[in-house]
Structure formats: structure tokens, C-alpha cells
């Protein structure tokens, strides 16, 4: 995608960023694609991504514990926190495509088991010349349809900007 087709200055262009990111995940990020990651919303300094509940993403339960469905493995929430936290930084860059972002530090706090679809919303705290920080909240739907926070996290990322 060229700079012209991904111009967030003209009309907000965040839909273009969301479509670009979703296409990139589907085409080049096998793991994120396999777990069903979708880009739901992109705005200035924020991004929301989700992963649907799938049995393949759960912790194994003993055969005797059949009264409730298995919880999603915590690594899936951590992956979502890391991914959406880093990608949200791009919304604050002058040219979101011409930079690379690498995780420096990731902190995840698990609040309760995730028993349904996961949705993570990242908010950019700051993007400096070389380091950016995002805070993320992950929510999950319960079997009775209630939405609850299941994890929070913060990521620090190294931002490599292309020199002009």
C-alpha cells in the first residue's frame, strides 16, 4: 500500500488503516490469522481488535469438569495485548506504514478467566522519537452474554522510523 492510498490526513482515513491491517494479518501473519484476529476499529491514538472464542484456544480441562466450557488460554490475551498495543502506535505516526515497531516490554495482569470472545482496546499513552507506550484492556463475553474485563496490560515498543 502506498503513501497515497493510506493518507490519514485527508478524511481521517482510519478505515483505510483498518482495512490495510486486516489484509496484512490475513495475508502475512499466519498465527494471528489462525487464531481469528480481526481489526474492529481504528482511531487517533486508539485501536480495537478481537478474537472469537474457539475450542482450539482453550486450556485443557479434566473430563470430569463438563459443567462449563473451557477458558481461553492466557497467552491469547497476551498476544492480543501485544499486537493491538503496538499497532495502535501507528495511528500517531506521520506515516504509519514507513516504520517498524518492536516490543521492548510487555506487562499483562489477568483479572478473571476468559470464557468467550475477546476484545482488546489499546490507547496510546505516548509516542516519542524512538519509544511508544500503550495501555490495553481486554474484555470477554461470559456464557450468559455479560461482558467483563479479563486482562489489562501495558506495552513499551521501540519505534524505528524510516529516515527521509
What does this structure look like?
- Residues 72-141 form the Thioesterase domain.
- With 164 residues, the chain is an alpha+beta fold.
- It has one domain (10-56, 73-161): Hotdog Thioesterase (Thiol Ester Dehydrase, Chain A), CATH 3.10.129.
- The protein is 24% helix and 37% strand.
- It has 4 helices and 6 strands, in the order H-H-H-E-E-H-E-E-E-E.
- A 6-stranded antiparallel β-sheet has the order 1-2-4-5-6-3.
- The two termini are 18 Å apart.
Tag the structure with descriptive keywords.
hydrolase; alpha+beta; hydrolase activity; Thiol Ester Dehydrase, Chain A; PAAI_dom; Thioestr_dom; 6-stranded antiparallel β-sheet; Thioesterase superfamily protein; 164 residues
Q: How many DSSP E strands? A: 6
Number of helices: 4
Number of domains: 1
Structural class, by secondary structure, is alpha+beta
Return Rg in Å: 17 Å
Overall shape = globular
Q: State the distance separating the first and last CA atoms.
A: 18 Å
Largest beta-sheet characterization:
6 strands, antiparallel
Instruction: Supply the CATH class.
Output: Alpha Beta
Low-confidence stretches: 1-11
In summary, what is this structure?
It contains four helices and six strands; from the N terminus they run H-H-H-E-E-H-E-E-E-E.
List the topology elements.
Blueprint: H1 8-11, H2 14-28, H3 30-34, E1 38-43, E2 46-51, H4 74-89, E3 99-110, E4 118-127, E5 131-141, E6 147-161
Antiparallel strand pairs: 1-2, 2-4, 3-6, 4-5, 5-6
InterPro entries: HotDog_dom_sf, PAAI_dom, Thioestr_dom
Region (Disordered): 142-164
Pfam families: 4HBT (PF03061)
